[in-house]
From TrEMBL:
Its cofactor is FAD. It comes from the Bacteria. This is FAD-dependent oxidoreductase. It comes from Polynucleobacter hirudinilacicola. InterPro entries: FAD-dep_OxRdtase (IPR006076), FAD/NAD-bd_sf (IPR036188). Keywords: FAD, Flavoprotein, Oxidoreductase. The lineage of its organism: Bacteria, Pseudomonadati, Pseudomonadota, Betaproteobacteria, Burkholderiales.
Length: 378
């Protein structure tokens, strides 16, 4: 039976970043992906925003890895010719009643070490964006957009150049520890057209929304260590014609997400979203990505708080994505969770849970952090 140093499950942006890092560290690495291509699920259904690290609690993994990931991502894209657009972002208080919330966001950003951020007045905001309605705003100049497909393609190239191999249409069927507490690694059962068995020293589960389901396939893993998956769908609506804004525009955040915001794509086209639609499903395969046009009614109301000039019938249903949550509705947002051997006792096993936004921005920092966890356990 073939044996490798490392198997990574899930070829989204985080899986690609981790697999590349494992290969660059000299480990013989295989990346398993159940789909026929990389980055086709959550990594292909998001806003492509390079976040600054503004919203997250001080000392949380999201805060630390987003701030570091923002810097690493811009550096990587510059050196690897991946397109970015540093549009900048305005977080707006629509009226005076939201000023306390806006101030709290600003102080949180300062505590997180977010660079290039300042509070600006209504006059300053309207100088930047004449169509904007606001009482005051936060300007985040390090927020931007990345060509996420180009970024993932570059990560894949780096992984393969370092000797890594991707196996598409290769779902993980099961994993069995070899020896007590997996001291000799894992034996994997891999499905698909070219199903096979494989042994590995390190098993890294970064399958996004499916990470809890993948973890349930690992023998001897304590079920108490596996969180329940929750699915929060985010719908997007596009705006035809020229964008009225040159910055990304964000309202004060709402429970479960960052509010219906305006983002720009690489070509400067505007779209709005995502909203938060909790799905009453148990697994990823039950997701319906169709955007219900009726949800647009809520978009008009939300957007007009900061852009009163939005005309009726200007928005069209576009696409949707689903956030990989491990906390239920009406609870504070969860942090990134690295479930490692010191948590569950199985050597060489790392399960990554709840890696929703800012996962894209943080991906390179996530890979570095995981490498640090591995080295500290050796």
């Amino acid at each position: 039976m073939e044996r490798v140093d490392c198997v990574v499950v899930g070829a989204g942006v985080i899986g690609l970043a981790i697999a590349r890092e494992m290969a660059l560290q000299g480990r013989e690495t295989i990346l398993l992906e159940r789909e026929s291509a990389f980055g086709t699920i959550s990594s292909a259904r998001n806003s492509e925003v390079i976040h600054a690290g503004i919203y997250y609690p001080k000392d949380s993994l999201k805060a630390k890895l987003c701030v570091e990931g923002n810097r690493l991502l811009y550096e990587y894209c510059r050196s690897h010719q991946v397109a970015t657009r540093p549009y900048g972002k305005l977080i707006v208080a629509s009226d005076e009643t939201q000023m306390n919330d806006l101030q709290a966001i600003f102080y949180k950003a300062q505590n997180n070490g977010v660079p290039e951020i300042k509070m600006i007045s209504e006059r300053e905001a309207k100088t930047l964006e004449p169509n904007l309605k606001c009482f005051a705003a936060i300007l985040s100049s390090s927020t931007g957009i990345v060509d996420s497909h180009g970024f993932m393609l570059s990560l894949l190239g780096g992984f393969e150049d370092a000797g890594g191999m991707v196996a598409y249409q290769s779902p993980l069927i099961g994993a069995r520890p070899i020896g007590q507490n997996a001291r000799n690694g894992f034996e994997l059962e891999i499905g698909g057209p070219d199903g096979m068995q494989l042994q590995t020293k390190f098993l890294i589960n970064c399958a996004g929304m499916s990470a809890p389901a993948i973890a349930q396939k690992i023998e001897d893993l304590n079920p108490d260590q596996i969180p329940k998956a929750y699915f929060a769908k985010g719908n997007y609506f596009s705006l035809s014609g020229k964008s009225p804004f040159t910055h990304l525009i964000y309202p004060i955040p709402e429970p479960g997400g960052l509010g219906v915001h305006l983002t720009l794509d690489m070509g400067g086209q505007a779209k709005f979203g995502p909203d938060v639609e909790w799905l009453e499903i148990d697994e990823e395969d039950q997701i319906d990505y169709t955007v219900n046009p009726k949800r647009g009614d809520g978009f008009y109301e939300a957007v007009r708080r900061y852009w009163p000039g939005l005309k009726d019938n200007a928005l069209q249903p576009d696409y949707s994505g689903v956030r990989a949550k491990i906390v239920p509705p009406n609870t504070p947002a969860g942090d990134f969770c690295f479930n490692s051997p010191q948590d569950h006792g199985l050597q060489g096993l790392y399960n990554l849970y709840g890696f929703e936004s800012p996962g894209l921005t943080s991906s390179l920092a996530i890979a570095n952090h995981l490498e640090g966890l591995i080295k500290s356990s050796l």
